[in-house]
């Protein structure tokens, strides 16, 4: 289990996990967490301490930030590795005209 503190100034930037990871709010305010399977499509989840954990599948991108003042999130397992995206990167929807 890996615990990560989020605050008004601290968030989880876009990153990709190498294996399936369970994401949940361990303590504090609700969190908005966004997952992207391919860097184009993305789905946001609002989760709190009473929510079921969200599964981040292997090789998917995710980001997270507190909706309140402070939150602690729990990532399981703690032995996963993450590729952190460049600071400017975020999922970009496909051009629907094609």
Q: How would you explain this protein's 3D organization?
A:
This protein has no helices and 9 strands. The chain has 98 residues and is mainly beta. The mean pLDDT is 95. Strands 5-4-7-2-9 form a 5-stranded antiparallel sheet, with no helix packed on it. The protein has a 4-stranded antiparallel sheet with strand order 1-8-3-6, with no helix packed on it. A hairpin with a 6-residue loop joins β4 (31-36) and β5 (43-47). It has strands at 2-7, 12-17, 21-28, 31-36, 43-47, 54-56, 61-66, 70-76, 82-84.
Write the layout of secondary structure elements.
Layout: E1 2-7, E2 12-17, E3 21-28, E4 31-36, E5 43-47, E6 54-56, E7 61-66, E8 70-76, E9 82-84
Antiparallel strand pairs: 1-8, 2-7, 2-9, 3-6, 3-8, 4-5, 4-7
Describe the biggest sheet?
A: 5 strands, antiparallel
Task: Give the neighbour order of strands across the main sheet.
Answer: 5-4-7-2-9
Q: So what's the oligomer here?
A: single chain
Kindly state the number of beta strands. 9
Segments where pLDDT lies below 50 for 5+ residues?
A: none
The helix/strand order is: EEEEEEEEE
Number of distinct helices: 0
Q: Report strand %.
A: over 45%
Task: Label the overall shape.
Answer: globular
Radius of gyration: 13 Å
Structural class: mainly beta
Helical fraction: under 10%
Alpha-carbon distance between the two ends? 43 Å
Mean pLDDT: 95
């Amino acid at each position: 289990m890996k615990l990560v503190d989020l605050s008004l100034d601290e968030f989880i930037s876009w990153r990709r996990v190498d294996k399936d990871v369970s994401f949940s709010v361990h303590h504090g305010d609700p969190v908005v967490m966004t997952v992207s399977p391919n860097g184009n499509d993305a789905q946001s989840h609002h989760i709190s301490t009473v929510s079921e954990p969200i599964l981040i599948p292997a090789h998917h991108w995710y980001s997270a930030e507190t909706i309140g003042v402070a939150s602690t999130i729990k990532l399981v397992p703690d032995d996963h590795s993450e590729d952190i995206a460049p600071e400017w990167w975020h999922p970009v929807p496909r051009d629907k005209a094609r």
